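Memo to structure team: turn this sequence into structure tokens by end of day. - J.P.
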Amino acid sequence: MRRVLLWVIVAAIVVAVAWYVAGLPGSVSLGLYGYTVQMATSLAIVAAVVALLVLGLVVRIIGWVLATPRRLRAGRARRRRTAGDVAVTRTLVALAAGEDGTARREAARARKLLGDTPQTLLLAAEAGRLAQREDEATDLYKSLAGRDDAALLGLRGLFRQAMTREAWDEAAAIARQAEAVHPGGAWLREERAQLAVRTGNWAQALRLAPPEAPRDAYAVAAAAAESDPAEALLLAKRAWKQAPGFTPAALEYARRLRAAGKEVRALEVIRAAWKDNPQPDLAAFSLAPIADPLARVREAGRIAGSVPAHPESHMLLARVSLEAGLTGEARRHLEAAQATGVDQRRLWLMLAEIEETEGGETEAGRLAQRAALRHAALADPDPAWRCEACGTQQPGWRPLCPVCQTAGRIAWGTLRTLPPALLVQEDEKLGVTP
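Reply from structure team:
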């Protein structure tokens, strides 16, 4: 209804204007080259309006004709852009599917259609890396690194290549460049932490490590690597305070205390650690300076006194008693360890040694010794330092597994305490089927 009313009002205005123009008095004369044209004023106004409309139409037609090349170029650019976007999408799909040939082909097509933009260069570099054409990928990453708008993309790719090649110095230099280009990036912090772990720069790894990283292992390694005794003692103490039940932390702190001449405090740390988590390396540290067998038995008693019923306490006292010739006391502790469920090779070997010592060359002694050795052959394996990631046994604790390069996963225990997946791997190595 409103639209109809609007049209009526416009029509009325047009009629009123036309009526007014038609009623204008007078005439208009135009002389040109001896010719004279005379017409009424109203007709002259209408003619002028028509002439302006025709002139406007002619101008628009001329403009359209002149703009035709530009329109054609714009159309071609739109088609190239559309085809380029399709090529980019296909490259992404090929990269996700691991199709290196398709990825390289579509990436090259995208560069041809769209030019060397950050997006096309990055896709081409990733396609080259997927196809294991590292030189090609390196050149493309360097092209990205040379651009002001995409330097971090190129540096990240170069950093990743350097880490794969284990070119640690090159990776460190690239990390510094990336930090200058994009300070404080979360990705760069994680990568620098990984680089610090690989290069053994444990102090930097500890500073850069996220909360979920094995920071206890980093702290112990940083203390062990520190050359300044005072700073090393401070780092070791901090590591032990953060994880008092972590055996490597207690051992490192005790070592630093012993080196500083604080033997009493070092032994206190060892005994506290034994109470939290009994482990043979702790006892070995305390007993190392003691040569007298009976004095070793007394010191072992002080260590084990906090948790006398623990199997490791019985195993420790059995070992030092056997070394001191106290075979009866050693047997008593081994039987106590057996009562807690221990059935390990080391227990039966000590029993075999006791039978040999007590029985001598008698027939009963030889029979008892052979029986203990047979049990040892079938017993559970002894606990050891083992990487929880790859299952490799290590001679001692390390912050980084030398086999799989996993940090903070070497732990003390037996195969029974390992993750289920690792137990399956061990069974396969031994040829055991479930």
